[in-house]
Amino acid sequence: MNLDYIDLLLVHSPQPWKEFREENRYFEENKEVWRAMEDAYKEGKVKAIGLCNFLQDDIENLLESCEIKPMVNQILAHISNTPFELIEFCQKHAILVEAYSPIGHGEVLQHPRLQVMAEHYGVSVAQLCLRYDLQLGLSVIPKSTDRTHIEENTALDFEINEADMEALKQIEKIESYGKDSIYPVFGGKIK
């Protein structure tokens, strides 16, 4: 890669994607992978090491024996799909939670309650979603190739009031992400 170091290296999944959230949890294999990541960190090859899609018991498995605890856990987290217990666990252990798909793969953009609330704040639904995750103490990584959307995604200088945050936490869970429910490149479905 012709780099002196990598900023952040993540274990993408605690299991092979085709076995995601199935019975074999790969606890011992994850410990081996983590030891190799710790070595890379100690050697200065990476500046931060972390996880992606790890549940609490996956993280606890690593915390039992690691020398360097995970710095990040990147998870699916957005309005209507917020794993509060996992977020609280990570935050308690000083593991930064990084929210991928903070706009729910675009599915939340058409939600009528979110549209009304966004209008109340004078922002887009996407901005409301990003601000929600930020107020939960999460780092967000929205995806866009549209320059206007990218610029809009950085204009988050408003605050969602406490009552509205509580209402957003109660929004019914999205059951399907439509065409984005399946990631054929990984052979898996979002669960």
What does this structure look like?
This protein has 191 residues and is α/β, with parallel strands linked by helices. The protein is 37% helix and 13% strand. The protein is built from 7 helices and 7 strands; from the N terminus they run βαβαβαβααβααββ. The chain has helices spanning 27-42, 56-63, 84-92, 112-121, 125-135, 147-154, 162-169; strands at 9-11, 49-52, 72-76, 96-100, 139-141, 182-183, 188-189. The protein has a 5-stranded parallel sheet. A two-stranded antiparallel sheet has the order 6-7. It is globular.
Secondary-structure topology with pairs:
Blueprint: E1 9-11, H1 27-42, E2 49-52, H2 56-63, E3 72-76, H3 84-92, E4 96-100, H4 112-121, H5 125-135, E5 139-141, H6 147-154, H7 162-169, E6 182-183, E7 188-189
Parallel strand pairs: 1-2, 2-3, 3-4, 4-5
Antiparallel strand pairs: 6-7
Question: What's the tally of helices?
Answer: 7
Which percent range fits the helix content? 25-40%
Tell me, what's the shape? globular
Q: Strand arrangement, largest sheet? A: 1-2-3-4-5
Class per helix and strand makeup: alpha/beta
Q: How many strand elements? A: 7
Q: What Rg do the Cα atoms give?
A: 18 Å
Described by strand count, sense and barrel closure, the largest sheet is:
5 strands, parallel
Mean pLDDT, to the nearest integer, reads 91
- Element-by-element helix/strand order: EHEHEHEHHEHHEE
End-to-end separation? 33 Å
Q: Oligomerization state of this entry?
A: single chain
Uncertain runs with pLDDT below 50, 5 residues or more? Answer: 184-188
Beta strand %: 5-15%
